[in-house]
Structures are given as C-alpha cells and as structure tokens.
Amino acid sequence: MNQNQKKRERGxxxxxxxxxxxxxxxxxxxxxxxxxxxxxxxxRVEKETKARYAEEGxxxxxxxxxxxxxxxxxxxxxxxxxxxxxxxAQNSSTDPYRLVDLEVKQSxxxxxxxxxxxxxSRRPTHPFFYAARIGQDSTANGTYVFKGPxxxxxxxxxxxxxxxxTDDAESTGTIPVRSGLTVSRARRENVPPVPMPNLDPAIYQxxxxxxVTSLTLVLSLAANLLPKSGRGLAYCNxxxxxxxxxxxxxxxxxxxxxxxSGAVRPILLTQPIVFLVTGDVIYTAGGTSNAFIYCxxxxxxxxxxxxxxxxxxxxxTEQLAMNNxxxxxxxxxxxxxxxxxxxxxxxxxxxxxxxSL
Length: 357
Hints:
Elements: H1 3-67, E1 74-80, E2 83-91, E3 100-108, E4 111-119, E5 132-134, E6 142-147, E7 150-152, E8 162-165, E9 169-170, E10 181-183, E11 187-188, H2 201-207, E12 210-212, E13 215-217, H3 219-225, E14 233-236, E15 240-246, E16 251-254, E17 258-266, E18 273-277, E19 281-283, E20 287-301, E21 309-321, E22 325-331, H4 334-337, H5 340-344
Parallel strand pairs: 5-7, 5-21, 6-8, 6-22, 7-9, 8-10, 9-11, 12-14, 13-15, 14-16, 15-17, 16-18, 17-19, 18-20, 19-20, 20-21, 21-22
Antiparallel strand pairs: 1-2, 2-3, 3-4
C-alpha cells in the first residue's frame, strides 16, 4: 500500500466519523430539547404553585378585613415565598352591598400576573339594576355606549357592533373577547340569570288609574291623563307613541308597541317615568329621554338614522336590533339604590309581591 492510498483511507475514516457524530447529534438534540422544555415546565409549575399560596394568603387576609367591616376601597399586600402580592378591593358596581371585586397582582423576577376576582354573595337582582339588560341573540349593528353595569345572556352576535361598557359586564355564559368590545371594569361570566318576569296585562289593567285605547302621549294630553304630582299607572290597550315633557312621575303600561318619536322627559328629573311594553320599542327620531324601559320584545329603529339617541335611566329588553344605528345609555341608580321603589312603580319582579332582600 503506497503513501497516497493510506492518506485516502485515513480521510475516508475521518469523513465517516464526522457523519456518525452529526447523526448522533441530530438524534440527541430532540432529547435535549425535551429535557429543557420539561425543566421549564417544572419551573413554571413551581412558580405558579408558590404564587397560588401567596394569593390564598392575601385573600384570607382580605376576608378577615371584610369580616371586620374594613371600609372599601383599600389595598393590602404581602410577600410570600418571594412573591409580592398586592390586592385592591372595591365594591362591585352591580351589588355594592355584598360583592367585592379584587384586583390581584403577583410579581416575581420581573414577571407580573394580574387577575380580577369577585368574592361575596349576590342579593336578589333585577333588570333595572343595570344600564342595559340585553337578552339572547341580539344583533345590533352600529355603535353603542353603555355607561353603567351591563348584563347580556349570549352577547352580541354581530361582529360589526362596537360596544363600549364603562362599568362591569356580566353574562350567564361567556363574554366575547373581540375587537370593538371594551369593558372598563370587571368581566363576570357564568353568573346567575337576570330574568325578565312576564307582564300580565289583566293585573295592570285592574290596577290602572287611567285607561286609554290608543294615544299619542305629549305634554298637553299627559297633563289630563295622570295626576300632576305623585305617581300613577296609565294602561294603554294598544300601540302608543310618546314624545315631549311628561307631567308627573308615572308608570305607563303598553299592551303593544311603544314608539318614541322624540325626547321623552318627566318634568321632575329626580324621578323617572317607567314604560312597561309587551311588544317592541321603536325609535323614529333621535333625542335624549329620561326613562326606564322594560321591553318584552325588541328595541329597533325605523327613522332618525344617525341622530344621537340617548337614554338616561335603564333599558331591559329581550333583543336589541337598531339596524346600523347606535344608542347611548347613561345608567341611573334610582331603583338600584332603593329597590322598594320598584314596588312603588309597579315594576314586575317586585310587584305585586316584592322579594325579600
């Protein structure tokens, strides 16, 4: 064997060795990757466990403070297992008497975790305790602003809807996470239902102070229908159109559709007018109204496209379908602050018999 041949053989061996090492390396890399991933997962689990212990410790502290009638809001913090945990507690806007919202922040090695929890029990609720109580399968294209706590059963199914809730949002199901839907405070999912009790025309007709068959209710007619002071119940046995400044603070029962043809305002703004509607609520014009509307049908629009429509009070409806328009609801806590007023205004759920609070 000559010298050149020996060199060629040694070169072949080295090339073969390099190929073998590369092959083994490619086989070992996945094993090493799995090992690193496993260690990272284990570290993450350990951190989450420590964070959970830290959180539970602070929550126990919060619970003891609540038991001692600690005034809200307040901040409390602790350092447990190297985790800094801060909790801010404040009253829930949908039930400031029993529910407490907790904003929990945990930090460790520059990592920050934030979540919102709710503790406490809920008192009996009602659709008028919300700026808007929206029923199932609402399809309302347009722009909506609800300035107050909001409840909806299945959310807005139309992706083009822009909805800004400046308070808490609640749902018996899940609250959709998508562009165009903003919630300024807590999101509460899987909460107990907020039903809309049925409207019994016979009971309201029997209790009415005034009964009419068909009416366009404006200032001049309202003065003759109901007392100029105090409360009264008007019963309308068919569709009703309303606009203008209404005298007194009353409940108007509509066995049919309610058409809002302009601004609707009570003379005394410190107390509302309540509309109980078995059919639809139809906007034919824009304007600002001061009222609580309880609608067993849909809220929709046939006119006034693009003209601002503002409701000071609250809206409870099975469906919101405004057809490429918008609605702004500014919540009034009139009934929320004193639920006995629901009975005074003969609102279903609290009248004829009011539940115990």
